[in-house]
Write a structure and sequence with these properties.
Elements lengths: L1 H5 L5 E5 L1 H13 L7 E5 L1 H16 L4 H8 L7 H5 L4 H27 L7 H8 L3 H9 L1 H18 L5 H8 L2
Helix pairs in contact: 7-8
Length: 175
């Protein structure tokens, strides 16, 4: 509060981890007439944990937990902590798998709808077989690859905007 007064800053924004924020909230809420200008928020780590917990809650009952256990990505004893975001490292890994899986499904759907022949995109095949900066430049300079990527981007945006079933658009919104 002294620093805010010295800097003529009317509001103090203070970032805490979860444990300290709980204590600080109690103090601020106990004396609102003194601390009316103090805004407390949690740091990025705990915000990210909450975000992953929200994603886990959205996925609850979808069969996603069973897929994680059966595939060996996560043990049955820790699935609840992973899905609620309290096992941070595992939750990050699991959510990355979820995004990868959804992205693969979208690409597969796009390829099936368009009947894309990989021989029409030799630059992409070459990049997939031997990734390098030079081959990436070839893909980026190829008119057929750029057209393919533009069409896929439009398809992805279409799904994101809800052109498929509502549940699919919610999941794709996470991407």
């Amino acid at each position: 509060m002294a620093v805010c007064k010295k800097l003529n800053q009317p509001i103090a924004f203070v970032t805490f981890d979860y444990a300290a924020a709980r204590i600080a909230y109690d103090i601020v809420w106990d004396k609102p007439d003194i601390f009316w200008h103090v805004v407390i928020h949690m740091g990025a780590f705990h915000t990210m944990c909450s975000y992953m917990g929200a994603l886990g809650k959205m996925m609850a009952g979808s069969g996603f937990e069973e897929i994680l256990i059966e595939s060996g990505v996560c043990a049955s004893g820790s699935i609840n902590q992973v899905m609620n975001g309290s096992h941070y490292n595992r939750a990050v890994k699991v959510h990355q798998h979820m995004v990868d899986g959804l992205e693969r499904l979208l690409l597969e759907r796009f390829l099936n709808e368009r009947s894309v022949d990989c021989t029409e995109l030799p630059e992409m095949v070459s990049l997939a077989e031997e990734p390098s900066y030079e081959k990436l430049l070839e893909v980026l300079n190829s008119a057929s690859c750029n057209q393919f990527l533009d069409e896929y981007s439009k398809s992805h945006t279409s799904v994101h905007n809800g052109d498929l079933e509502k549940n699919c658009s919610v999941l794709v919104g996470l991407l």
